[in-house]
Design brief:
- The protein has two domains: about 15-85, Arc Repressor Mutant, subunit A (Orthogonal Bundle), CATH 1.10.10.10; about 95-235, Chorismate lyase-like (Chorismate lyase, 3-Layer(aba) Sandwich), CATH 3.40.1410.
- Strand 4 (about 130-140) and strand 5 (about 145-155) form a beta hairpin.
- The protein is built from seven helices and eight strands.
- It has about 260 residues and is α+β, with helices and mostly antiparallel strands.
- The strands form two sheets. Strands 3-4-5-8-7-6 form a six-stranded antiparallel beta sheet.
Length: about 260
Amino acid sequence: MLGPISVRRPPRPSATARAVESLRLLLAERSWGTGDKLPSEPALATQIGVSRVSVRAALAILESEGLVTRRRGSGTYLTSVRPIVNSLHLNTGSSQLLRSRGRVPGISEMSWREVGADAEVAVSLGLELGTPVIDLYRVRTSDGTPVTVEHGYFAASLLPEQMIDVGPSLYDFLSTACGVDVVFGIATLEPAPVGEELSGIFGVGSEELCLVMKQVDYDAAERSVAYCVERHLADAFDFQLVRQPPVHPASRPGRP
């Protein structure tokens, strides 16, 4: 197996992009409601560890998305809680979901290895059967109790010539070490029994239900770059759907 050594990393995301992501997490973790006033820009900058300029730019982006509104001389207010619930349309990680419920996330086991792509992985990543892929295995915990078992796959050809630790975040590794940014993912979600193999990890009976999420992640060119299979204990997470009513022909712009 390749060992961890140094590698020259591509540029990190911009300060504004990091500020936007940090603010999203902050809003998701706090119990603010619609109409609540947010802390001042200097206070937010201190909380998330960026400059006030970056916070101001990030708030402008969130305002354009309808999440907040800024009132001159008054402050910034939360406009809608819809984008920050644990909704299935947001590509939110297990750790973020657990923090939003007041839990302490962790990882009790993590390893990675190079394997040949089986039929499911090969089809998902658009590879030939048996093509070398990296399998990143993680057991995530909530307050020390295992609640999620994950396998994340990506083509071994994406690895840099000089290898570094994969680390706990597959997205971060793909971005910083491989120069590949995930832009969106397409997932399926279905219930299934935990089964004998995972019952020992979760500490529950094999007939207990888990939620199986299978997701293919794509880059900006819509190339499949990662395939993840996550098994979540059903009672550990609260997934929600944010749904809009259908648009009727009479209500479309330009229609009388």
